[in-house]
Amino acid sequence: MAVKLGYKNVYRDPYGYPEWQGRGLPVDSAPAGLAQSGEAPKAPGPLYGWAMIWTLLGIFVGGMALNLTPCIYPLIPITISYFGGQAAKEGEGQGKLVAHGLCYMMGLAVTNSVLGVVASLTGGLMGAMLQNPIVLIVVAAVLIVFATSLFGLWEMRLPSGLTQAAAKSYTGYFGSLFMGLTLGVVAAPCIGPFVLGLLTWVASMGSPWLGFLIFFTLSLGLGLPLFFLAMFSGQLKKLPRSGGWMIWVRKLMGWVLVAMAVHFIRPVLPGHWGTVLIALVALAAGLHLGWIDNSQANFRAFPWLKGGAGIMCLVLSTFLIASWAMRGPGVTWKSYSEETLKEAQNLKKPVIIDFYATWCTPCREIEEVTLHDPLVVKMAESGFFMVKVDVTQGGNPLNERLLQQYGIKGVPTIVFLDTEGKERRDLRLVDYIPSDQFLGHMAALKKSGS
Fold first, then answer.
1. Kind of pairing between the strands at 334-335 and 11-12
2. Can you spell out the DSSP letters for 407-426?
3. At residue 36, does pLDDT exceed 70?
4. Which of 381, 399, 384, 406 is nearest to 340 (CA)?
């Protein structure tokens, strides 16, 4: 669905780019492109009136849709645990819990807004600075350590002075705001694919304040479902206060932390080891939670709960292993070079350039699902030059030049060049796309060069 912006006859296609970008024009030649179509060029200006309202509403809805992305999953157990504890405190009524939830959501929004504006004004790749391999390994190690505590292998007890200091720093509304500010870093990479179209727009307007408003609205949409989740967490105080089920839930949360640790280190694992490791974690969790653990509870449904959780984990593990084992070979890639592009032009073959990073979740989804589809692989081998540009590590002069040359604001970005070497802007992709739609893009590109 096209989202109307605040200046005349400029619409964004489903992939986030203005309509004039589909005419093969570079970003900075937009006014000329509009002038050629018979309309007076009009520089983009600040939003106002109904244009602002409808645009911000569309951005808000897009932010809500971001909750379906994997970066948000680690926030769910953290949100439930934190606000469940807030609700259990004496004197914390529903009104105060709502205020805590609003502070939490504001913290998320502020962090993502600042990061989004910085990315838009600097041209940096969203999430790259947050996904350094050393940082990922340290975070995963910390999660594993805390998981072993939940499994009962050790008990973390701080000195009373430190305990009081920590409790003081996280009590009150500032504590909820601080939680949101820090956890916003976890969610930040998810907003990258969605805002690629917004990045160029914000930079072209040259208004950091308006850019902040746009990203703040996007982040409010991102945080709203988490806000309702925080309110739901208040119902935890109605659960039984004690019993063996609490030990079992504690171990369940331990396995959640282990899975989160594997999720964080997937980008640094070679090949398909990330998928295999997650499957093994699901298998171990299912066996442990469903049958090995001997926790008991005083309500009849508890054995069914344990068995159901174990079966679900086993099904997930089986599905992951089967998907990995049955997957065929993927697309064969070439490294970027001017010689490769010239060879493609001589052979009258279109070129598809995939700007990729291992820390990018949608990039891995495209690689592991879309680009392993047999029809996509067959079509790529027969009529295309497939080029991959890996921008995982910064500082490569060639990659930096290519990012600037093609106007790449984030990953994933897939660029389609016709047989003359000119980009089809209307086909550019900036997010995950299923194989059938990707085949449609390939067919359109091949048709334009015939």
1. unpaired
2. T--SSSEEEEE-TTS-B-GG
3. no
4. 384
